[in-house]
Prior knowledge:
Shape: globular
Strand content: under 5%
Helix content: over 70%
Largest sheet: none
Structural class: mainly alpha
Oligomer: single chain
Amino acid sequence: LAFRRPILRQGRTMLLAVVVYGAATLLFGMSRMFWLSLAALAAAGAADTVSSILRQTIRQLGTPDGMRGRMTAINMIFFTGGPQLGNLEAGLVASALGAPQSVVIGGIGCLLTAAWIGSRAAVLRNYRGGGAA
């Protein structure tokens, strides 16, 4: 990425990466072929990496200097606690419906959430970097 030109539409790219992550998760949950499952997991991992880097960059650049420490502390709460809640939810759904259905429901939930946030958060959708929307 160091040799690539800068991403001009960070907000849209981040939302697209979340959509790709959700779609890859959904595909993984529905797949019954090893090579397709492997490709879906690779796509999900790549999309998650892109969205994670862009989310962190957008948060850092979009937060005023005096609030950056507080924002980072709140982010750490979600970063450490969020996956634990997601694991609990996925385990409960898997025990009730089965593991593949739990993964499919998670992928659908990710896609619906990305669509909802993308439709409601124009500031994020239009974010272009440098702290300006």
